[in-house]
Predict the structure of HHIP-like protein 1.
Amino acid sequence: MAMKGARVRGGHGSFRVLLLLATVWLANGHPQCLDYKPPFQPSGALVFCKEYSKFGCCDVERDIAISNRYYEVMDFFDYGGFVSCGKFIKSIMCQECSPYAAHLYDAEDANTPLRNLPGLCGDYCTDFWRRCRSTISLLLTEDARVMEIEGDRDKFCALLELKDPEYCYPNVLTNAELNANLGTVQADPEGCLQLCLQEVANGLRNPVAMVHANDGTHRFFVAEQLGYVWVYMPNGSRVDKPFLNLTSAVLTSPWVGDERGFLCLAFHPKFKSTEKVYVYYSINVKKEERIRISEFTLSVTDMNMLDHNSERILLEIVEPASNHNGGQLLFGYDGYLYIFVGDGGKAGDPFGAFGNSQNKSSLLGKVLRVDVDDNNDGPPYWIPVDNPFLQDVKARPEVYAYGVRNMWRCSFDRGDPGTGAGRGRLFCGDVGQNKFEEVDLIIKGGNYGWRAKEGFSCYDNKLCHNSSLNDILPIFAYPHKIGKSVTGGYIYRGCEMPNLNGLYIFGDFMSGRLMSLKEDPSTGEWNYKEICMGTGQSCNFPKLINNYVKYIISFAEDEAGELYFLSTRIPSAKTYAGVIYKIVDPSRRAPPGKCSFTAHPVPVKGKLYHFHPRESKGTTGRPAATHKPYYTLPKTASKLNKGHSGKMDGLKDDSIGNRVNKKDPNSKPRKGRRRKLRQGMVRLASPGKRLDRGRVEIFIKGEWGTICDDLFDRKAATVVCRQLGYPFAIRVAKRAEMGQGNHLSILLDDVKCEGTERTLLDCQRSKIGQHNCSHKEDVGVICGYSEYDEEEG
Ligand SMILES: *[C@@H]1O[C@H](CO)[C@@H](O)[C@H](O)[C@H]1NC(C)=O
Ligand SMILES: *[C@@H]1O[C@H](CO)[C@@H](O)[C@H](O)[C@H]1NC(C)=O
Ligand SMILES: *[C@@H]1O[C@H](CO)[C@@H](O)[C@H](O)[C@H]1NC(C)=O
Ligand SMILES: *[C@@H]1O[C@H](CO)[C@@H](O)[C@H](O)[C@H]1NC(C)=O
Ligand SMILES: *[C@@H]1O[C@H](CO)[C@@H](O)[C@H](O)[C@H]1NC(C)=O
Ligand SMILES: [Ca+2]
């Protein structure tokens, strides 16, 4: 058995490999236990392997087991043997509890055999051989070659030595670099925190929210923008029928970046008894866009479904523009429902004398607070008696805080698991206009500054310098070179990652950056640290990965308090490109058993779909990842929608998204599965193969052709861009600016559109193929996510 280890070590080649790997491990610091998991702080002090009481790989039970085995071995010794060799044997046996146990036992690579004893340093081995070589047979009882090596120091140490001067025992204990940050979150040389991820769900269409019911079942409920809510069991299996299907009522579109849709749900804090759920979605009523907040009740026959006939509307707010619809619903620890409403849209909050956000008679640009308890008779909600503006006759009584632009994702802090400190604090990400994204700590009656201010800086100079503004500044703001659309997150308060306790983890939708803030309790300041994916060996645990798809839509907390985020490779409400990841700290875990829970069983009607992860690790063994996210749209296709591509809507190519922090080694352009060519579909041809711009080519009657530019305007370009999944056309490029399609026929001329047509064929135009222009007038377009400017998120 143990000899296998020796064989692995043998030979010049493997020796070189070992040195190479050792360099990488050293660079990353990678404590790991024999169960392929990070070390932990035992829940009680260890009696035998005392030195690992603070941090290591043994809990109290394991320590007792090692101690028992030690005394069994010691039974074979006389007093002299005990004195000379007892310490050696104990130290060697206790290496199982070292935070570097996996390395010492050669367990980091699950494909090579485990050593039976930890790898020793050369000098130490020689010493051990000189004084106690006869004890080896007691430690390696099953090994037939023990007798043979006992007499030969070289053979003896070839078996026991670990030819890595940094990691062998006992050097590993004294290596300052390895031990300096042991058990704390690892950071790379630039200070970026290295975390890992575990994929928990995939194939979702713009997953906007994931919540739990706080009912002991540990189910999680995932909402898709187009109007579905799905139920997942604690083991990741999904119930086949939706919890809620509002797709026929919800207003949204497949356009990339459309902010309308089903945006949030929140379970009543006493859901177990009230069985009520609240939802927030966009709707079209009498040609008016509105947001609607309504209440649903659980089905009486199925715990995994709402009663679709039970909807009760709490509130509808007219949206003057299609963007900035807010979209967060939360229950506070006060039992009240908090509603986060956007400023109504367009740029710069242009409505009324000073915008909606500073106008307390408008519900737009506000945090609202209402009481939905005991609402079965009478109005669907009450106003809490301590709402802040009840005395102000001009203010709507629902207003709790104002001056917000478009809060996207807010959360209440659960508080420190030990002391409860911080409990009830309300954190929000407020999406910025042209320059800054901000994170706010919301308090009752607070004015968060918009549109007077954006982040810390003035946006509307006049309002900004009015001394009665009295606004509350963000706890953190970042400029648009870091990201263009903040996605608020959570303060980590879970059990499994003790080092993350108190860290506010959030992200940016556009740049795909993960970020963190930590409060300095002495100054109250929040310190920023970027989060990047663990490189090298640090995410090399089973199920963990170190990359994610780029567009971070939302964060989530499960019933136990563990943290997740939801992102997608293609931010379209009809594309199955969304993934949910659990955030994992590879540097330390909770002691085994501490975080276990029993979920209340839930009867399931119908089928369950088991979860199959699709994401894979980045290349390990060398730094595969850079933590610098991409800022431009990628150019190449990567793997997508396995098993779902047939359901993809529209004509959009599957390649606008990307993944952050690593190049996917598995990504290949899809072959042999061409989408069906449909009459009127378009593509953009450009030398750089850019997806968002190029010469317009249209498919008609079996052939691709070009279009003349004479009457072609922004409205016609909008039709093209929407076909391709972009909400807006930024520019029309005339006179073959995007190149001449000389190899193609000119298929359309004199195209005049309203902008709402499905394809250019529905616009006013010449007959197909009839034209009086040349390829010098081939038209091109540039598409985008925003009509105002290319920069805004
Ligand atoms: C997941 O849990 C459900 C019960 O909640 C069970 O029916 C199902 O078989 C489990 N799936 C797997 C893969 O274990
Ligand atoms: C959701 O509802 C729509 C109509 O309201 C229906 O066409 C669709 O099949 C439903 N989806 C599911 C998965 O039940
Ligand atoms: C404030 O909002 C209300 C409700 O939308 C509106 O009637 C009013 O004109 C606005 N006030 C100003 C000063 O713009
Ligand atoms: C400052 O703001 C107050 C209240 O919003 C308003 O009544 C006042 O006219 C403003 N002052 C100036 C100089 O704009
Ligand atoms: C050719 O150009 C004229 C204007 O110069 C226009 O009225 C006519 O419709 C065009 N013919 C075709 C087939 O596009
Ligand atoms: Ca602000």
Observations:
- Confidence is low (pLDDT under 50) at residues 1-28, 619-658, 661-673, 789-793.
